[in-house]
Amino acid sequence: MKGNTAEADAVILEMKDVKVHFHLDEGVLKAVDGIDLRIKRGKTLGIVGESGCGKSVTSQALLRIVPSPGRVEGEIKLKRMRPEGGLEEVDLIRLDPRGKEIRDIRGGEIAMIFQEPMKAFSPIHTIGNQIMEAILLHETDDKEEAYRIGVEILRKVGMSNPEQRMGEYPHQLSGGMRQRAMIAMALSCHPSVLIADEPTTALDVTVQAQVLQLINDLKESRDTSVIFITHDLGVIAEMSDDVAVMYLGKVVEYTDVDTLFHAPKHPYTKALLNSIPTIGRGNRRLESIEGTVPFPMNLPKGCGFYTRCKHAVDGMCNREDIPLTEIEEGHFVRCVLVGGQDARKEAVR
Ligand SMILES: Nc1ncnc2c1ncn2[C@@H]1O[C@H](COP(=O)(O)OP(=O)(O)OP(=O)(O)O)[C@@H](O)[C@H]1O
């Protein structure tokens, strides 16, 4: 991906040709297959796509927690502050996934929240102990100070009676409160990047809106970059500055949120948008597009969306792998039928 210098300066995390392949007895499962993404400082990158397209494995790659037998390739460059001041760039893929450096980054510079907060918490320790443990690992050695920071952060995420909450166990909190506690734990170490993987899917609509608002407020007040993973385009519209649409382990369209909703180019993006009757009202969940996502193993050459695409052209779309191409400044599309990639672009108008 190209880009001007001012924009490049604001990029805090960049993924280049990242692949996550699972080498199974049956063959190679290409969960993530060469993605390029940029995360800008203080901005939210939304990643959207149907189930199985590789959203969660992408976030596992960022944290270097891809389970065996997954292999990660490519570059994931993170800009981080040196202890002595100034920025340094570190390639997360070159780090030992069990080493000290990545452990410092995980929960330090990069934190994650996900759908089920019970997974983030141990059921046998209090919320306070667990938040303090994270703070003691990354922020301070002083227990009293860690307690104070813990109370403060619970207050910030909107928990009533934070001192009392510190002494409670995860099962004593409601779903929405547990979600807030997980956000508090993730934010306690001032991450520069917050990965949110479907963090509100299990919550009712009102609590969902409050949690989304909380993430937006924290992003703005702390200049945190957010990677927001969801299959819900309504949430994408509300949360994102830039959006990457994923299909079968690849980014098929990447642009700013307004362009995505007002001038989408990839047939898959258009199909996703057409599958929600009205954005901003009613059931915002994606309805399924005709056909199913192929299993990402032993795939033929060409566009992954070929079998479901209304505009597919035999001999053109299924001939060779299609590159992600910048069709206008900052707008990238992986389709031979779109914007300058081929004379047949009229076909998808
Ligand atoms: N540990 C694993 N071993 C083998 N295959 C895996 C593993 N984890 C994920 N996959 C496969 O990788 C592909 C991408 O999965 P991923 O969970 O990233 O999809 P997703 O877009 O996050 O889906 P969802 O929205 O349902 O969470 C899927 O085909 C999945 O079956």
UniProtKB/TrEMBL annotation:
Keywords in alphabetical order, please: ATP-binding, Cell inner membrane, Cell membrane, Membrane, Nucleotide-binding, Translocase, Transport
InterPro entries recorded: AAA+_ATPase (IPR003593), ABC_Ni/Peptide_Import (IPR050388), ABC_transporter-like_ATP-bd (IPR003439), ABC_transporter-like_CS (IPR017871), Oligopep_ABC_C (IPR013563), P-loop_NTPase (IPR027417)
What kind of membrane protein is this, topologically? Peripheral membrane protein
Domain of life where this protein originates: Bacteria
Q: Give its localization.
A: Cell membrane
Example GO CC term: the record gives: plasma membrane
**Location of the ABC transporter domain:** 13-273
GO MF annotations for this entry?
Answer: ATP binding; ATP hydrolysis activity
Q: Does the UniProt entry include the keyword Cell membrane?
A: yes
The processes (GO biological process) annotated in the record are: peptide transport
Against Pfam families, the record matches this protein to: ABC_tran, oligo_HPY
Which protein family is it in?
Answer: Belongs to the ABC transporter superfamily.
Output this protein's name: ABC transporter ATP-binding protein
- The source organism is Paenibacillus aurantius
Q: What is the lineage of its organism?
A: Bacteria, Bacillati, Bacillota, Bacilli, Bacillales
